[in-house]
Amino acid sequence: MMDRIHTGQAWFDALFPQGIPTRTSTLVTGPGGSGKPLIGNLIASAWLREGGSVVFMSLQYPTHEFIVAGLKSVAGLDLSDYKDRVVFIELDATRKDVALTDTHYFKANVVIPDNWDAAIEQSSSLVPNEGPGILFFASALNLLLFSPTYGEAVLERMKKTVKEDKRYTYLFTVSTTAKGKEIAQLEDVADNVLESRSLDDPFRLFLHIRRMKNTAFETGEVQVPFPSELLDEVKEVADHSRLRVIPQVRKL
Fold first, then answer.
1. Where are the domains of the chain?
2. Residue 231 and residue 198 in contact, taking contact as beta carbons nearer than 8 Å
3. pTM across the whole model
4. pLDDT-based confidence at residue 27 (cuts at 50, 70, 90)
5. How far is Cα 120 from Cα 76, in angstroms, rounded to an integer?
6. How far apart are CA 234 and CA 212, in angstroms?
């Protein structure tokens, strides 16, 4: 099984001369709307092209079609070419369980800690563990922390996953705009931490590596060469997610 992976994007791979280590946990942090899922899309696209499998758990998107469009825009990847190696987990805060609603498509209330574990186990059983292995790409995880009942418990479950589970590779994006103290706890236990920031007029995205496990990396900040129109779309989705998801999670 591969222990390193390159994305094929020269500007990004220059930050990781030896490649991104597999079977580690990576956290991409930064303010809300700063393009963090786009960074994850680059890694997920490379993962699939290298023969791996990806489980997408994007909490801020109303449907998985936003993921499909994002991968196409950022990396030119047609997700339909890899349908046997992809699983989607959609947050459904109205249910109590994890349910396979279609081939390789789950609806799950992952705010509940036991469902977090169940979603990982059930989704990983549906795809081959080949090439670089299975990548769990979850975005906007801080949204789960707004639950008054389960917020603390699901944070502990996430911390345990990123710190202890080395069967798979974990890539999480989190906003530091809200629940910053809790997110700092995740940053402390993750193997790798990347940090993004953005500037307006026009909207620009910047990235630097704060920490990487057992691999060389460049410490300088780089401007991410994504068009401002794409970044504007990401910010719009982030704003929408706060209005749509947070009220649902706060009821739990």
1. 4-250
2. yes
3. 0.89
4. very high
5. 27
6. 26
**Contact indicator for 67, 56 with CB cutoff of 8 Å:** yes
Assigned token pair, 77: 């990847």
Sign of CA dihedral 19, 25, 30, 35: positive
Strands (E), the chain: 4-5, 20-21, 25-30, 53-58, 86-91, 98-102, 105-108, 134-139, 169-175, 192-199, 204-211, 222-224
Give me the residues paired with residue 206 across strands. Answer: 197, 223
CB 97 within 8 A of CB 65: no
Helix (H, G, I), strand (E, B) or coil at 101: strand
Mean pLDDT of 74-99: 84
Q: Which two tokens stand for residue 156?
A: 């502990």
Give the pLDDT of residue 203.
Answer: 76
70: its two tokens = 């994002």
Per-residue tokens: 76? 């030119």
Assess if CATH 3.40.50.300 describes domain 4-250: yes
